[in-house]
Amino acid sequence: MKDMARVADVPRNEILRGDSIEVMAGLPEASVDLIFADPPYNLQLRGDLHRPDNSRVDAVDDAWDRFDSFAAYDAFTRAWLAEARRVLKPDGAIWTIGSYHNVFRLGAALQDTGFWILNDVVWRKSNPMPNFRGRRFTNAHETLIWATREEGARYTFNYEALKALNDGVQMRSDWVIPLCTGHERLKDANGDKAHPTQKPEALLHRVLVGCTNPGDVVLDPFFGTGTTGAVARMLGRDYIGIERDEDYIALAERRLAEVRPYDRAALEVSASKRAAPRVPFGQLVERGMLRPGEVLTSVNGKAAKVRADGTLVADGVNGSIHQVGAALEGAPSCNGWTYWCFRREGRSVPIDVLRQQLARRWRSGRAEPPFSSPPSRYVLVKGRRARWSVFW
Length: 392
Ligand SMILES: C[S@@+](CC[C@H](N)C(=O)[O-])C[C@H]1O[C@@H](n2cnc3c(N)ncnc32)[C@H](O)[C@@H]1O
Hints:
Helices cover 28% and strands 22% of the residues. It is of the alpha/beta class. A hairpin with a 2-residue loop joins β14 (340-344) and β15.
């Protein structure tokens, strides 16, 4: 951990001690990929809250959550958001979280500071605390706001990964996740909650899998027990935490020391089709992954030869992998990537495997893609114009 004055480079995997506005002011501009901020709620609690059995509710009444007025809270919010926006990369994004006490002020301040809101997400608590007085609804949710640095900015959204997390169905903006309890909840020496607002790791897991990639830098300016850092570390992301309370810093340091990152293979998430680099078949030939003259076969025994220009030839038909497959099957269309196989070491392997290998190399930066979006391709199949780019 460092005492922050000014840091020349962005410090990774450290807790920076101090006031978040001052510490962020010392961080370089455009240096972090994502900010997850769980700021003070400004709960304005008046007096103790008791359960029906008269036991005292451990509510958020800490000094860090107290502000003299809404105006003071707004000034604080706008100041930290301005610094957050400065340190965010142009393609970066921010997630903030709050309750009805502060989230509307937070949303307005985000927009006034220049951020562009993409979604709000309702975190519905499956195990909320009841409203003990029975005078209002059970307060069973908090609201997250996801925003880019400005309107039109690019941002990371691992659509397919989130869909996979949601059993193959598009992820919605209402997330049902329990409050942090049980062994995940950090306790103090008396066995009481060590921090009143420790967030569940599941919430951070979803945010980080959905909106960051391994190696990204995630900043949490209100680090508390270090939930953001712990999940970032598990997922192979780097974190920067800012916290000014010495007890919480010690707690987070102990917690982070015990985190074991998942192995690299487990961190690969399903790529969004839009984000996946497109691989023209000719690239496999140019790069020697398939040789001109090599014979490709289909599962039902059809055969075609690879030509040097990345087309196939078979029985007097020649054209793209998709065209030749469709012509041989007498079908209006055919996905050549899954239709054709090549032989290696006595085994028949779909050419899609080579496409995926190349796409992985491009994604990891080990090789340059030839272009990022496919040219529009229209071909004649049985006298009809069909669009092929869907199979890229
Ligand atoms: C809502 S809690 C964050 C809890 C955290 N997300 C977790 O899971 O443990 C807010 C935290 O911000 C810290 N904090 C409040 N104001 C701060 C400031 N101006 N600078 C740095 N830390 C601050 C508090 O000490 C508190 O731990």
